[in-house]
């Protein structure tokens, strides 16, 4: 089974969106360079960010996200983001009415069941869990192997927290990657067991 990674871009004060669910400048680093990160030609990063991010993206088999993110993105128009094969949506509600049942999206009730379904679908590839409430729940349940964050030089002051509503201490190992790109600091931590 592949590892489970909690991930997002984050402000230096720990937020993945402002109070209105807007990411503000959190993704500006994805257009701060001259090296194409994907085939779209839209995402261009520094060579350093490309060397760190592209191999990570290539390992992701399945993304786990919450229903709130799914609804905000209109389900990515039925196409998983970033070229991943499947998205598992943590939701107490079924797929939206009229949703194409052939779209590679799976609606699962509860974080534990969602991560299990994602691992089944991913095989030996990585499962990425979106930071925020779902990611924090997965961390609290002991399901996360690694935390990755792209820290952006902005202070939000308030908003949606990277670790959601985690209310207990969770130890991480020392960072095993600290990489400076343009307008971003890439960090990777293993979760202590």
From TrEMBL:
<feature type="domain" description="Bacterial bifunctional deaminase-reductase C-terminal">
    <location>
        <begin position="111"/>
        <end position="169"/>
    </location>
</feature>
<dbReference type="InterPro" id="IPR002734">
    <property type="entry name" value="RibDG_C"/>
</dbReference>
<protein>
    <submittedName>
        <fullName>Deaminase</fullName>
    </submittedName>
</protein>
<dbReference type="GO" id="GO:0008703">
    <property type="term" value="F:5-amino-6-(5-phosphoribosylamino)uracil reductase activity"/>
</dbReference>
<dbReference type="Pfam" id="PF01872">
    <property type="entry name" value="RibD_C"/>
</dbReference>
<dbReference type="GO" id="GO:0009231">
    <property type="term" value="P:riboflavin biosynthetic process"/>
</dbReference>
<dbReference type="InterPro" id="IPR024072">
    <property type="entry name" value="DHFR-like_dom_sf"/>
</dbReference>
